[in-house]
Amino acid sequence: MSGSDGIRQVRLVAHFPGVNNTTVWSDPRSRSQIDFSSFEELARTAERGRFDYFFLAEGLRLREHQGRIHDLDVVGRPDTLTVLAALSAVTANLGLAGTLSTTYNEPYELSRQLATLDHLSGGRAAWNAVTSSDAFTGENFRRGGYLDHTDRYERAASFVRAVRAFWDAAGTGRAAVHRDRFFDIEAVPTLPRSPQGRPVVIQAGDSPQGRDFAAAGADVVFSRHGGFEAGRAFYDDVHRRLAAHGRGDDELLILPGVTYVLGDTPAEAEERARAIRYQQVSGATAIRFVEQVWGRDLSEYDPEGPLPDVEPDLERVLTQGTAAARSTDRAALVERWRARAASEKLGIRDLVVEESARQTFVGTPEAVAGEIVRHVAERASDGFVLVPHLTPGGLDDFVDRVVPLLQERGALRADYTPGATLRENLGLAPRP
């Protein structure tokens, strides 16, 4: 969507980072993951910056490593919909998006919960529909186990169709019927039609099947391709898939997750970025990261020393952990890491920093604003999901120093449209 002067509008999303190694937990400015004040502060900052929506991740089970719970996980994995409902009372224009699994929820119940949030918020609800892949999480649920990759996406597509059928039947007094190999449901919705008609649906898959799933019915794609060239390739690929589903280019937004570091000079920004990367990856974190790929206990290794000379245990099945750990070719990954470590003279911690903790936008506020505008103008994205390294104050400097520059360039709204729903703020077509 372009403004009145033809400049493509930047879409901005505030991500509450939750439990991951992006957040610098050791920083004294980091606060609670469960106190409502943390959620409220980040949401209010995003609304002050005229962001489109607040994005909350979800974890359905605490992660474990070597038989122990990750220490940081126990600081809080709150229920998504409860937090978003509370935020609806302290925000007026900001969209409220939650990550909710299609594997471990039921369509009728979730459609009702999201429609309720849409009513409570005046049309600001959004749902990041994700599949859940591992048996480890499945142990928390009655049916246990997990679905293979193909079935996960087929169930997800069926799930989304069912939810939308219930939304569309709202207020009609008629039952919505959805029957296939995954579901056999006939239900009359208990609510009138929600303000948006249908809450906004977000999808985050990156496989060919995930991209097709997004092209078929998502309103927004949460992408991991924040770099310019990778972003443009992903953008073009997903948009090519839209026509096969009878959809136009203006029916889908692509918003990569990114991080940023600002400085008064380029050198200062680079120095800050390097310091943050090393705060994000402690020695213990680096060892755990490598253990998840090796499949072995490496606690005796020095994180400042060379990569382990022992070979990885490729017979061990990894049910959780990093994307690297779940790679289908861990042997090739280990060889690549060894080659890079040797050529660049990197120890374990140095390598993990380079492989895992990299900021997308680093520079002065003017440079960062210019790069954001370029990405959107040249269709490498439609905007960005900002993942701050501090919770909850990590967006403050972006809102104070970059947002005014985007507004001066005409790339970001100066204010919200009164009474607009999230769908309208995003420039998406209304649902009849």
From TrEMBL:
InterPro entries from the UniProt entry: Diverse_substr_monoxygenases, Luciferase-like_dom, Luciferase-like_sf, NTA_MOA
Residues covered by the Luciferase-like domain: 31-376
Positions contributing to FMN binding: T99, H149, Y153, S207
UniProt GO molecular function: monooxygenase activity; oxidoreductase activity, acting on paired donors, with incorporation or reduction of molecular oxygen
Keyword line: Flavoprotein, FMN, Monooxygenase, Oxidoreductase
Membership in a protein family: Belongs to the NtaA/SnaA/DszA monooxygenase family.
Designated name of the protein: Flavin-dependent oxidoreductase, luciferase family (Includes alkanesulfonate monooxygenase SsuD and methylene tetrahydromethanopterin reductase)
Lineage: Bacteria, Bacillati, Actinomycetota, Actinomycetes, Streptosporangiales
